[in-house]
Amino acid sequence: MRRALDPHEALELATRIKGWGMALGFQQVGITETGLQRAEQRLLDWLDAGHHGEMDYMARHGRRRARPAELVPGTLRIVSVRMDYHPEPREDPATLSDPARAFVSRYALGRDYHKLIRRRLQRFADRITETIGPFGYRAFVDSAPVMEKPLAEQAGLGWIGKHTNLINPRAGSWFFLGELFTDLPLPLDTPLRSHCGHCSACLEVCPTAAIIAPYRLDARRCISYLTIEHPGPIPLALRPALGNRIYGCDDCQQVCPWNRFARATAETDFLPRQGLDRATLITLIGWDEPTFLERTSGSAIRRIGHGRWLRNLAVALGNAAPSPAALTALTRWRDHPDPMVREHIDWALARQREHSARDG
């Protein structure tokens, strides 16, 4: 059994742990306790309102999601980390302003972050073990029923903004989060107070008005949910608002004034792959399923499958300027075996013809 640490030793260990995390490529490391009472009540209210849509997994574990010590018995502290992912210092608006191009959320342009950060967390845990011997831990990266943003907020990594993303005053919000649940009695870090003030830029810019109130998101209207998590047809009334966004949406982050402090990622795995930062809609809808699986290997995009990929691209082409090339690209998929894909293709073809008739 490992002997108990006195307060001085615990503080020294926490300082060393943070240094090891930074050396491994995390931009910040913070420590918090397991209590999430306020976040738990907000979660329950959100679920009761049905704002999670068809993300049944959000409700499946109930209160356990907000109780880390029940998820991993013996947990005393959570070591929370963040890692920058933005591929460039400032967002280039050219993609969103060109309806012929496809917009992919910045986090998904490179390799899937889950494996990279999980491996980094394992190396982090190994480094701690080398110094203090075996200890109880479990690593999480956007996995299992873990409330990563409230934990990171309590650990002093930032505050949850009105768009429900975590904001750091020196790094904006373009970063991933990860956690080590541990049985180490480490000293706690101090949470930051919110600095959103009277700003409402994220609420005003949301294309589908998914941020229904400060700090409250209705996922059923959110483009990220609709293009990634939602398994069925995208609601007709919301399709025009998607524009050319085919995987996720970054609008609320792009307008956040704190992102003027964001830094470009140092991780080459997070840099754009397969030309996804400049691809056209017609090029991407031309990928058959084998091509889709090959081009999205190692990418977070792969998990939505080829059917949803075509669904999203059909909506984007339905919103694009009319062209013979778009009609040809869409017509190729009219006999797709998935009725959801066929319905979106037919909708897009009808929109292309309506635009053409109107403009002609």
Automatic annotation (TrEMBL):
Residues involved in [4Fe-4S] cluster 2 binding: C206, C222, C249, C252
Localisation: Cytoplasm
TM ranges: none
A Pfam family reported for this protein in Swiss-Prot or TrEMBL: Fer4_16
UniProt key word Metal-binding: yes
Active site: D142
Span of domain 4Fe-4S ferredoxin-type: 184-216
Cofactor binding, note field: Binds 2 [4Fe-4S] clusters per monomer.
SUPFAM superfamilies, A to Z: 4Fe-4S ferredoxins
Superkingdom of source: Bacteria
A single GO molecular function term of this UniProt record: epoxyqueuosine reductase activity
Cellular compartments per GO CC: cytoplasm
Function, as annotated: Catalyzes the conversion of epoxyqueuosine (oQ) to queuosine (Q), which is a hypermodified base found in the wobble positions of tRNA(Asp), tRNA(Asn), tRNA(His) and tRNA(Tyr).
Similarity annotation: Belongs to the QueG family.
Protein name per its UniProtKB record: Epoxyqueuosine reductase
Protein's organism: Marichromatium purpuratum 984
